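EI: anyone free to look at a 85-residue chain?
SC: sure, send it
EI:
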Amino acid sequence: MPKSIFDGAHLCVVEALIGARKRSGLTQAEVATKIGRDQTVISTIERSQRRVDILEFIALARAMNEDPVALFAKIVAAVPDHFEI
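SC: here you go
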């Protein structure tokens, strides 16, 4: 299995989510439980093996006691002006 299937700008999303989880003091399993998913979902996101859609992002942010808008603003500020999707 490759280390990451996404790179560049996507790493800004992953880093923001990992940072939010660590700030919350929650484990991957605890976040997963809060959103009704298995811990492996959080793991694959944090390893850049799975992208997050906007509704998942909102659920994850809220589960980690983050304001989704503020967290998204941090990501937007970190993403380079030009990137591949």
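EI: Residues 9-24 form the longest helix (16 residues).
SC: 👍
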